[in-house]
Amino acid sequence: MRLDTLIALALVFIPFSLTSIGGGSAIVAGIQHETVVVHGWVNSREFLDLFAVSRAAPGPGMMLATVIGWRVAGWLGALIATFALFVPSSLLCYAVFKLTNAHRRKRWHRAMREGLAPVGVGLIIAGIIALFRLSNGGVVAVVIISLAAAIFYMFPRFPVLGVLTLGGLGAAMLSFAG
Question: Average of pLDDT values for 21-38?
Fold first, then answer.
């Protein structure tokens, strides 16, 4: 493994760490672009497979950095990518919390929090679109996504496990029917 590859992993994931407004799902599109298009570390199919493995594994939802780092540069790559994604944002969040916690009730603090919410939502939607394009999602995928979105919109407290179960059953029924 080459040192420049390890440095490149860090240089890819540190900026995503600092811009992951809305959580890890908000940076999936950017990670896909950097790892597939820019660096060519993985192809589209491998990216989808790594994404699926990272979501199925226990732990933080953004273990995608870890599996990409492992795929690119082994265990050391996994460690570097993981630390590059989690440490900078953790330090930034801690610092911002310490500096602004005393101002929680002020209008500017509330405006800042509420102003960042649409940014996070937009980034998450960009990630969903990127995954949909990579997977060549068809009508079945659109139907499942639409039903899940409708359930969460109409019943915001509906258990996520219930939606996953319904989606899995729907996909299984459609695959048996087709």
Answer: 85
